[in-house]
């Protein structure tokens, strides 16, 4: 999966918005998006929310996992644990990026959250690198890693696949005695 | 064992010459004895062949033949030749160097197809098979960390200082390791595009056969029209 595909898929997640127009229910293939009433918050898919925002028809409601406190809590947990902590959403990094790009004014402390997200990303990447390094060095057959986001998986997929193939080929060539 | 018939890596790695020793007499191939490092069996040898036409190769002569030939004659039922010594990079002294510290060895210069050639060699029969196999594996594992570090750092081409130090490091990688490096960097380059918001840009398609100068001229021409 390319990074483009992951971004495309991430836009399907639901997010709360507050519209400023009135419109009856819209029926889509995946489900229906409820009747739009001014100043009544409702859940819409991300792609729709971006479109509405860019045509100035709605205002974003900050999701619970993107508030300053919860991100700080995530960062703290990540720093304490050696393994990866579960993320509230499989697309946290992409979604936070998208939301920041489109609706920065709706998120309180947007810049600080951006910095925290970057710290979180760097921390997880460092953990990834050390665990891959350990895997290659030990020559184990497999390793179990939990709670990785899609973006991170996408990053290391090709690299890890090819390097493990090489190691497996070299291991096979060792004659048994 | 081989990847496929047209695989360039296989072709390059199997055409290295390896010394072998004949076990039986082979008639009429006496001219092979003088061909060690130069290109073999071309026209000048044919002239010689008129004189040495029917001389034969005696047993126990040492020849240097490319690997793909040795694979056929060393492994078949009636073995014509055996392998007395390995190429230099797999010898015991080199193996000790690898065991000490594998990441300093300049594989690009000494053996650009180290791993692949090693795997091909392991198909033949010789004494120190297990040690060579273990050396290959452990060398790869030791060098893996530096490949990963190099590939996960995205160095812009405009950043000359880092560029130089990266070149120094990656100059020692052999072909397989360089491929791995490219894969890792491509993934990170994609992520960079995401962060810089370039994934949603619509780019003009790359027109085959046109240089970038031509496409710029095309785009420039279009813009000029719109300004009217």
TrEMBL record, chain A:
Localization per record: Nucleus
Gene Ontology CC entries for this record = CMG complex; GINS complex
* Keyword Nucleus applies: yes
Q: Where is the DNA replication complex GINS protein PSF2 N-terminal domain?
A: 3-61
Q: What is its main location?
A: nucleus
Which Gene Ontology BP terms does the record give? DNA replication; double-strand break repair via break-induced replication
Q: Which UniProt keywords apply?
A: DNA replication, Nucleus
**Ranges for the GINS subunit domain?**
65-170
- InterPro entries reported in the protein's UniProt record: GINS_A, GINS_bundle-like_dom_sf, GINS_Psf2, PSF2_N
The domain of life is Eukaryota
Specify the signal sequence span: none
Q: Which family does it belong to?
A: Belongs to the GINS2/PSF2 family.
The protein, known as: GINS complex subunit 2
Specify the taxonomic lineage: Eukaryota, Metazoa, Spiralia, Gnathifera, Rotifera
UniProtKB/TrEMBL annotation, chain B:
> Gene3D superfamilies from the entry?
1.20.58.2050
Write out the entry's keywords from A to Z: DNA replication, Nucleus
Pfam families, sorted: PSF3_N
Keyword Nucleus included in the entry's annotation: yes
One of this protein's GO BP terms? mitotic DNA replication initiation
Major subcellular location class? nucleus
DNA replication complex GINS protein PSF3 N-terminal domain boundaries: 6-37
Q: Which GO terms describe its cellular component?
A: GINS complex
Compartments annotated for it: namely: Nucleus
The Swiss-Prot or TrEMBL record describes its family as follows: Belongs to the GINS3/PSF3 family.
Cite the record's note on assembly: Component of the GINS complex.
| Role summary | The GINS complex plays an essential role in the initiation of DNA replication.
Q: Which PANTHER family match?
A: DNA REPLICATION COMPLEX GINS PROTEIN PSF3 (PTHR22768)
Name of the featured protein? DNA replication complex GINS protein PSF3
Specify the species.
Adineta ricciae
Q: Give the source lineage, highest ranks first.
A: Eukaryota, Metazoa, Spiralia, Gnathifera, Rotifera
């Amino acid at each position: 999966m390319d990074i483009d595909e992951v971004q495309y898929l991430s836009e399907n997640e639901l997010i709360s918005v507050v519209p400023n127009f009135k419109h009856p229910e819209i029926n889509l293939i995946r489900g229906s998006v409820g009747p739009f009433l001014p100043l009544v918050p409702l859940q819409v898919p991300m792609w729709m929310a971006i479109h509405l925002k860019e045509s100035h028809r709605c205002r974003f409601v900050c999701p619970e996992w993107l508030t300053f406190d919860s991100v700080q809590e995530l960062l703290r947990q990540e720093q304490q644990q050696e393994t990866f902590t579960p993320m509230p959403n499989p697309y946290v990094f992409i979604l936070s990026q998208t939301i920041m790009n489109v609706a920065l004014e709706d998120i309180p402390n947007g810049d600080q959250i951006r910095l925290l997200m970057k710290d979180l990303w760097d921390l997880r990447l460092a953990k990834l690198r050390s665990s891959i390094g350990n895997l290659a060095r030990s020559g184990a057959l497999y390793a179990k890693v939990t709670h990785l986001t899609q973006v991170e998986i996408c990053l290391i997929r090709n690299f890890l696949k090819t390097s493990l193939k090489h190691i497996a080929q070299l291991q096979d060539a060792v004659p048994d005695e | 064992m081989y990847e496929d018939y047209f695989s360039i890596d296989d072709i390059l790695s199997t055409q290295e010459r390896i010394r072998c020793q004949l076990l039986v007499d082979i008639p009429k191939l006496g001219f092979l004895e003088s061909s060690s490092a130069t290109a073999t069996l071309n026209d000048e040898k044919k002239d010689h062949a008129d004189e040495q036409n029917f001389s034969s190769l005696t047993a126990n002569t040492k020849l240097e033949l490319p690997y793909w030939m040795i694979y056929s004659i060393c492994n078949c039922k009636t073995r014509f030749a055996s392998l007395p010594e390995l190429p230099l990079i797999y010898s015991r002294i080199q193996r000790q160097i690898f065991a000490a510290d594998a990441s300093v060895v300049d594989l690009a210069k000494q053996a650009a197809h180290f791993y692949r050639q090693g795997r091909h060699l392991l198909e033949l029969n010789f004494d120190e098979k297990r040690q060579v196999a273990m050396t290959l594996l452990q060398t790869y594992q030791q060098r893996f960390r530096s490949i990963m570090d190099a590939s996960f750092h995205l160095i812009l081409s405009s950043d000359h200082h880092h560029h130089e130090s990266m070149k120094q490091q990656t100059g020692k990688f052999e072909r397989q390791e360089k491929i791995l490096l490219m894969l890792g960097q491509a993934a990170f380059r994609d992520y960079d595009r995401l962060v810089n918001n370039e994934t949603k840009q619509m780019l003009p398609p790359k027109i085959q056969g046109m240089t970038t100068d031509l496409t710029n001229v095309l785009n420039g021409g279009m813009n000029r029209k719109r300004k009217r």
